[in-house]
Amino acid sequence: MFEKLEHLGIAVKNIAESDKLFKKLLGDTFYKQEEVESEGVKTAFYDGGNTKIELLEATTEGSPIKKFIDKKGEGLHHIAFEVDDIHKRMEELRNDGFRLLNEKPKPGADNKLICFIHPKDTNGILIELCMDKDKELNEEDLKTT
Ligand code: ZN
Questions:
Q1: 9 alpha carbon to ligand 1 midpoint, in Å?
Q2: From the CA of 110, how far away is ligand 1's center (Å)?
Q3: What is each CA distance from 8 to 24, 75, 129, in whole angstroms?
Q4: Is 44:25 a contact under the CB 8 Å cutoff?
């Protein structure tokens, strides 16, 4: 169904503080910091070996990460699986009765298109699907030629 575990998303209050912790845990594997304005988050990525670790810090009052931390505190926020064709997978999930949190794939950090499955349909775990944006561009190139 999904290609592989792509990353684990962890909600933190302060990326600069958590960066010290994750460098202790993972060594110097930090490779990218990026803000996703549309989502109200700042992200930092670490190479955790088999999978990546994404730290998420809220940048706005309405950020989903702010709401999450207010309710549950810092901690595991989502798990993300890579898919080859996000449109197809979303369609399949809908047909299987899953509720998706967004109608269409949306831009995420790390050059991805992403979509979330409603955690009420997945044992309380927020699951993200992600696909490299480059794959989308390639497909559209193919369609127009
Ligand atoms: Zn993520």
A1: 5
A2: 9
A3: 18, 10, 12
A4: no
Distance 61 CA to ligand 1 centre (A): 19
pLDDT in tens, 97-106: 999 999 999 9
How far away, in angstroms, is 127 Cα from ligand 1 center? 9
Q: Rounded to an integer, what distance in angstroms lies between the CA atom of residue 43 and that of residue 115?
A: 17
pTM check: above 0.85: yes
| 39, 18 contact by CB (below 8 A) | no
Q: Are 117 and 97 in contact (CB under 8 A)?
A: no
